[in-house]
Amino acid sequence: MERETRELTCINCPLGCMLTVTLEDDEVVSVAGNTCKRGDTYARKEIANPTRIVTTSVPVDGSASERMVSVKTATDIPKDQIFNVMAAIRNTRATAPVEVGDVIVANVCDTGVDIVATRRA
Fold this sequence. Notes:
There is one protein chain. It is built from two helices and ten strands. With 121 residues, the protein is of the alpha+beta class. The strands form three sheets. The chain has a five-stranded mixed β-sheet. A three-stranded antiparallel β-sheet has the order 1-2-3, covered by helices on one side. The protein is elongated and about 60 Å long. The protein starts with a strand and ends with a strand. The relative contact order is 0.16.
């Protein structure tokens, strides 16, 4: 049985708890250092399947007042897909009018996740 510890900083809230995750044979057996349940959940997910929400902005065509609109992934995506998703977004333009929640890119990079607008333009 191989035992290993990893140090993580929780990103689920502003506290930024320093977490110590103990693994045995690549399975999480304990999480220490968290001040709330979210830290435990974050650590277990981060070890097994790290994911992130991606936020950025894209140019808007046809709007007299807004040149850019902020967008984000509708849910988190696998961390190893961030650069691919950003490359896809880099080649994207929105067309006015844009409403909050409008899908700007559907199923980005075959992740099953849409890129959605987070404000009006």
